[in-house]
């Protein structure tokens, strides 16, 4: 993304940030896969397309591989988007300080997520929002989650993660 494109996004920051939220909520409801829906929402709101980053987030839903035991996929998807824009490139792999900006911005996202939800582990987010957790790897658990309206709850988490991430990215561009 060149500087003129960044400037145009900065000028429309509120609109872009709100679009990230709306798309995140919509994509999670229509497609599920919290990490992918978060990345898709952020990238679409910013006018970016990168199928490799999108595809690489496939296994990250429901705390990694539908385990529920890892970090919320929406939060991880947001961190992946931050890494896409501010991360270390392969030609700088041996420079241990190069990823520092992505570390700091991802930590900012984490802090905002924790402030909002109090937890970041998928099953803990489920329990805080719905009073219980679900085993999405079992057919019965998946069906119970759908009956319970899990997608409705998770779509708001995805929208929030996409919004927070878009804010962080745009704010950082504005400081550059």
List keywords for this structure.
9 helices; 176 residues; single chain; mainly alpha; globular
Q: How is the secondary structure organized here?
A:
Blueprint: H1 3-11, H2 13-31, H3 34-46, H4 51-56, H5 73-86, H6 100-117, H7 122-130, H8 139-148, H9 150-175
Helix pairs in contact: 1-9, 2-3, 2-9, 3-5, 3-9, 5-6, 5-9, 6-9
Outline the structure in words.
With 176 residues, the chain is an all-alpha fold. It has one domain (3-171). The protein contains nine helices and no strands. The chain has helices at residues 3-11, 13-31, 34-46, 51-56, 73-86, 100-117, 122-130, 139-148, 150-175. Helix 2 runs antiparallel to helix 3, helix 3 (34-46) crosses helix 9 (150-175) and helix 5 runs antiparallel to helix 6. The longest helix has 26 residues, at 150-175.
Number of helices: 9
Q: Would you identify the regions where 5 or more consecutive residues have pLDDT less than 50?
A: none
Give the helix proportion (percent range).
over 70%
CA(first)-CA(last) distance: 14 Å
**Whole-number count of domains:** 1
What is the 3D shape? globular
Count of extended strands: 0
């Amino acid at each position: 993304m060149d500087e003129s494109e960044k400037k145009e996004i900065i000028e429309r920051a509120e609109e872009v940030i709100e679009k990230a939220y709306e798309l995140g909520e919509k994509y999670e409801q229509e497609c599920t896969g919290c990490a992918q829906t978060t990345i898709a929402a952020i990238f679409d709101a910013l006018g970016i397309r990168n199928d490799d980053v999108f595809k690489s987030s496939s296994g990250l839903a429901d705390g990694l591989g539908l385990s529920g035991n890892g970090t919320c996929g929406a939060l991880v998807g947001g961190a992946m988007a931050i890494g896409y824009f501010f991360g270390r490139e392969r030609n700088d792999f041996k420079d241990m300080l190069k990823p520092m900006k992505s570390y700091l911005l991802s930590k900012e996202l984490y802090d905002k997520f924790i402030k909002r939800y109090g937890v970041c582990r998928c099953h803990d987010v489920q329990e805080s929002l719905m009073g219980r957790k679900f085993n999405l790897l079992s057919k019965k658990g998946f069906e119970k989650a759908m009956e319970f309206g899990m997608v409705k709850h998770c779509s708001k988490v995805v929208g929030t993660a996409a919004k927070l991430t878009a804010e962080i990215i745009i704010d950082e561009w504005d400081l550059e």
